[in-house]
């Protein structure tokens, strides 16, 4: 067909198909922008959790692909009537689950423009501005995080051996650094082959995101050599370096090769923090790679008062954090910095004939394909640059501080009601709490009661929370930080929690 039919009355016969006809682009995007702004205007009144069952969408939309063109308005109507009602509204100010998926006007604009340009930045030559913007914005963010100069891109004037890359997810950051650490360990043990891979061991606390152990399996580590180190309340669920040392020593004595440690700053379950400096000290004894996963909490470290959580980062090999979680930059945007980019590129570099070019050969250009799994790559740096350029450090810090202040206010409300307990100390903007077991209510019954509370809150559509298990107790997670959230949303969620709890406890007492 012709271009997008934005005018149902317009004749399309005889036109050639021009999918990027500028006037069609303008018409479609105006409609999309109207949709987005209407969506944000009404999102607060929509149930956070949709009332749909698996498979619902197949009954709503055409079963077979449409053969003929349709006015763009028809497409938008189906989006409104069939898709929106099945959406979990992560952008809702009543969303308190998981970690927030933050966003901003500048980020959406950046994503839109990057999609329009649709550049494929595998090498500097293929996308000079996109490559240089990614390098620059990573250096900017590294400066906000006060990462040592050694993590700055090696092409930046006066800076060191390191550099960064923007990936889609933390899992990819783990995967590429695991590959680099694996290859370095194999080289050190005198083999580039895979025969010694069965001797390599990796370490992380039992609170580490499960995706780490998946990345280890994908990298070829023997599942028997993945050490998940138990944590407990005595370290607030952070990794105990003494236990780490003991386990690494035992492996070393058994002829194994300690290769990689993943330390988390802000675990998914309860926001526990592994002690970066102490972990790096232990790793140094075995020449093991240390990666810091600060997917969520890394954003907070742009504020001086939270920076201490990554103190000693100069002694680790790599660190990653995801601005798509808490730095107002829409999915997907995970920033990875490594102290020695050569260790990454040695493992991931490719040099096919058809990508050879003068810039690469000059050694002056960064080819970002050599720091990731795939070849093609999106212009992710643009949205991050637009966020940082538009809001500036001050506003970004304000945003983090305001979320933390709201979480603190919520925590105080919970503490003031003796039916509840705070399960672990709050570090950032996540509050882990539960209805406490008291009187005739055992811990096991309290687990069930908390589960019922979560289900009732979520079904109400007025708030959405997720749970975790801390020290074998069912715990509610209240994650503040959705970009449209204000204190009134936190307060009304608390009112709902209290009211629902009263009803559940009364019913529980009647049953006894
Ligand atoms: C601390 C931490 N690490 C890793 C992940 C996994 O991130 P991704 O989905 O980007 O791979 C998460 C996700 O929430 C996380 O919180």
Automatic annotation (TrEMBL):
* SUPFAM superfamilies given in the database record: PLP-dependent transferases
Post-translational modification N6-(pyridoxal phosphate)lysine, affected residues: 325
Q: What cofactor does its activity depend on?
A: pyridoxal 5'-phosphate
A GO molecular function annotation here is: pyridoxal phosphate binding
Question: Which parts pass through the membrane?
Answer: none
Kindly list the biological process annotations in GO that this record carries: amino acid metabolic process; carboxylic acid metabolic process; phenol-containing compound biosynthetic process; primary amino compound biosynthetic process
Where is it found, in Gene Ontology cellular component terms? cytoplasm
For this UniProt record, the keywords arranged alphabetically read as follows: Decarboxylase, Lyase, Pyridoxal phosphate
Asked if the record carries the keyword Lipoprotein, the reply is: no
Decide whether keyword Cytoplasm is in the record: no
What name has this protein been given in UniProt? Aromatic-L-amino-acid decarboxylase
Record family assignment:
Belongs to the group II decarboxylase family.
One Pfam match, by short name?
Pyridoxal_deC
């Amino acid at each position: 067909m012709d271009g997008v039919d934005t005018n149902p009355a317009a004749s399309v016969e005889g036109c050639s198909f021009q999918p990027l006809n500028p006037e069609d682009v303008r018409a479609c995007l105006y409609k999309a922008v109207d949709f987005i702004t209407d969506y944000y205007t009404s999102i607060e009144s929509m149930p956070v959790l949709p009332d749909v069952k698996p498979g619902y969408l197949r009954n709503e939309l055409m079963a077979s692909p449409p053969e003929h063109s349709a006015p763009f308005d028809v497409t938008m109507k189906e989006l409104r009537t069939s898709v929106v009602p099945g959406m979990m509204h992560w952008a809702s100010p009543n969303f308190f689950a998981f970690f927030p998926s933050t966003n901003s006007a500048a980020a959406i604009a950046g994503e839109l423009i990057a999609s329009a340009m649709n550049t494929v930045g595998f090498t500097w030559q293929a996308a000079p501005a996109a490559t240089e913007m990614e390098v620059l914005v990573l250096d900017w963010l590294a400066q906000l995080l006060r990462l040592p100069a050694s993590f700055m891109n090696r092409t930046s004037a006066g800076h060191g051996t390191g550099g960064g890359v923007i990936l889609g997810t933390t899992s990819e950051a783990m995967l590429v650094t695991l590959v680099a650490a694996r290859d370095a360990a194999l080289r050190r043990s005198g083999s580039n082959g895979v025969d010694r891979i069965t001797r390599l061991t990796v370490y992380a606390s039992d609170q580490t995101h499960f995706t780490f152990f998946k990345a280890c399996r994908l990298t070829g580590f023997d599942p028997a050599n993945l050490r998940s180190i138990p944590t407990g309340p005595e370290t607030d669920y952070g990794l105990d370096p003494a236990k780490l040392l003991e386990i690494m020593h035992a492996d070393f004595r058994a002829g194994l090769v300690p290769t990689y440690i993943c330390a988390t700053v802000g675990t998914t379950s309860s926001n526990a923090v592994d002690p970066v400096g102490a972990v790096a000290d232990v790793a140094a004894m075995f020449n093991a790679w240390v990666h810091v996963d600060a997917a969520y909490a890394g954003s907070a470290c742009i504020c001086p008062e939270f920076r201490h959580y990554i103190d000693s980062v100069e002694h680790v090999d790599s660190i990653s954090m995801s601005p798509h979680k808490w730095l107002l930059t829409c999915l997907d945007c995970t920033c990875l910095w490594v102290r020695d980019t050569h260790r990454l590129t040695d493992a991931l570099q490719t040099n096919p004939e058809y990508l050879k070019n003068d810039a690469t050969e000059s050694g002056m250009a960064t080819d970002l394909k050599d720091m990731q799994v795939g070849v093609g790559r999106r212009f992710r740096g643009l949205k991050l640059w637009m966020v940082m350029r538009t809001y500036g450090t001050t506003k970004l810090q304000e945003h983090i501080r305001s979320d933390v202040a709201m979480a603190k206010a919520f925590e105080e409300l919970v503490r003031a009601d003796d039916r509840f307990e705070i399960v672990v100390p709050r570090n950032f903007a996540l509050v882990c709490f539960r209805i406490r077991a008291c009187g005739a209510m055992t811990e096991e019954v309290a687990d069930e009661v908390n589960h019922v509370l979560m289900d009732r809150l979520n079904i109400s559509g007025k708030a959405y929370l997720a749970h975790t298990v801390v020290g074998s107790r069912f715990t509610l997670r209240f994650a503040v930080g959705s970009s449209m959230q204000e204190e009134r949303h936190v307060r009304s969620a608390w009112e709902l929690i209290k009211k629902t709890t009263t009803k559940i406890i009364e019913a529980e007492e009647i049953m006894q």
